[in-house]
Structures are given as C-alpha cells and as structure tokens.
Amino acid sequence: MKNPRAVAKRIAEFHNESMKRSVEQASTIEDKVIRLVENVVEDASAKTAEETIELHRKLLEIAHANVHAYFEWLHEIVKVDSPSDFTAVCMKHSQQQFETFRQQTRELGALGQKAALESMGPLGIVFGNALIGRPDLC
Question: E strands along the chain, which residues?
C-alpha cells in the first residue's frame, strides 16, 4: 500500500486542479453570457430605433396626406357659388376625411402594437400572438 499522506496529497492536488479548471470555465462562460446579453440589448435598441423611424415616417406621411386634403378642400370651396354647394363640398370633404382618419388610426395602432410586442423580445411575440388570437404562431 501507498502512504496515506501521499494519497491524500494527490487527491488534494486533483481537487485543486479541477477547481482551477472549473473557475476558468466559469469565467469563460461568464464572458460568453455577457457578450450574448450585450448583443441582445444592441439588437433590441436597433429594433426600437427602426420602429421609431417607421412610426415617424408614418406620421409624416399622415401629416402630408391631411395637408393635401385640406388644400384640395380649399380649392373646392373657392369654386362654390351657393350655400347648398358649400354644404355639399363640406359634407363630401368631412366624409372623406373621416374615412381617412379611421384608416390612419388603424395603421398607427398596428405600428404601436408591433413596436410594443417587439420591444418585449421573444416573449412579446409569443404572448402577443396568443393575445391577438393567433396561438398557431406561438
């Protein structure tokens, strides 16, 4: 038989070596996890910026369409000869603008919903699809 002290010393050395490797591996894994989290945050920031740009683009498009409709209404008002024509032009413009506003509201709502779900990350997509009645997309 070998010396029990030598065996205990050898066991302690193996233990120390394995602990040292475990600490090195943990530190490597920690670095990888930190890099992954940083990448996810950067991707989320980029998507948020994309959604913000898309929202601003849509708002500018809506403002342009509304200003254009206003000037068209003014051109038609200038041509009016009687109060009944004035009323007819105003009613026609009001109906068109009401429909336009409804459509614009739907588009902005969809953009807002998309931005909100994407800002939540993967969970937002799963829960969002379930909430809007699309469990097949979960």
Answer: none
Compute CA distances 17 → 7, 14, 24, 31, whole Å: 15, 5, 11, 21
Which amino acid is present at 122? P
Q: How confident is the model at residue 25 (pLDDT cuts 50, 70, 90)?
A: low
Rg value, the chain, Cα: 33
pTM above the 0.85 mark? no
What letters, b where the CB count within 10 A reaches 16 and e where it falls short, cover 67-97? eeeeeebeebeeeeeeeeeeeebeeebeeeb
CA distance 40 to 87: 57
